[in-house]
Amino acid sequence: MIQRKQSVFLLLAAIVGIISLCMPIGIFKPVELGVDSVMYNLWIQDGNGSLDFSVAPLFCIALLSVIISGATIFLFNNRKLQIKLCSWNMLLLIVWYIAYGVIAYLHKSSVNAEFKLSFAAVLPLIAIILVFMARNGVKADEALIRAADRIR
Length: 152
Description:
- There is one protein chain.
- This protein is an alpha+beta fold.
- It has a domain at 5-23 and 57-111 and 119-141.
- It has helices at residues 5-22, 56-73, 79-111, 123-151; strands spanning 26-30, 37-39, 44-45, 51-52, 113-117.
- Strands 4-3-2-1-5 form a five-stranded antiparallel β-sheet, covered by helices on one side.
- It starts with a helix and ends with a helix.
- The mean pLDDT is 90.
């Protein structure tokens, strides 16, 4: 049944992921004189307007997470696969944070700037929580089905 609370959690996780893809996830403020650089999931935009696509792996990881969240909604007949996909999705979002930290640290040290987090950098954490709640709901459904089969 597609009208489960897990489907709502997964849909919200996909929406939060899409919002995170579109918004800036960090700002590099130069220590000395200079113009701020804005970091998105796909590129870093300098104050001059030039784009650096060295952060494209963040975009790929986040996009894959959104696709997995959206696809998992429609796998309601296969609860075991839903549980596995939710677990892989959470792992993928944790990898996103690791890559985010590494890329921000490397770019910060190369341009001699301070790094400031943006609001959109918190959205994948919200997606992790939503996917975790969906996974627990799917597990509860699976346990309920197993109990009902045992009674018959």
